[in-house]
Amino acid sequence: MPGPTQNAEYYFKRAYDSALAAAIHTRNVQDETGIAVYDIAASLSGLSKGLAEMAIGLRATYILLERTEQKLDRQRVR
Questions:
Q1: Considering Cα of 53, then 59, then 63, then 64, what sign does the dihedral take?
Q2: What burial class does residue 68 get, using C-beta atoms within 10 Å of its C-beta: 0-12 exposed, 13-18 middle, 19+ buried?
Q3: Strand, helix or coil at 75?
Q4: Rounded to the nearest 10 degrees, how much is the dihedral formed by the CA atoms of 12, 18, 22, 24?
């Protein structure tokens, strides 16, 4: 069962994929409304990608923290 950061990564990736698809789909629309939709979709795509990267970094931080705690526990036992 995935943990919270893995779930976050999954949902951020889905949001990125959806926003990117919307940006691509609306890219060739010439009226002002289409351009605004493209800009919003492109912004959401970038934001979602950044959040996905943060989730990956957070998970890596937790892994390193756990390893550090294990090392400290081994040192305390000695």
A1: positive
A2: exposed
A3: helix
A4: 90
Cα–Cα–Cα angle for 62, 68, 69, nearest 5°?
90
Q: Is 29 left (phi over 0), alpha (psi -120 to 50) or beta?
A: beta
- Quick: pLDDT tens for 34-77: 767 888 888 888 888 888 888 888 888 989 999 999 999 999 88
3-class state of residue 28 by DSSP: coil
- HSE, CB side, 13 Å, CA atoms: give it for residue 26: 18
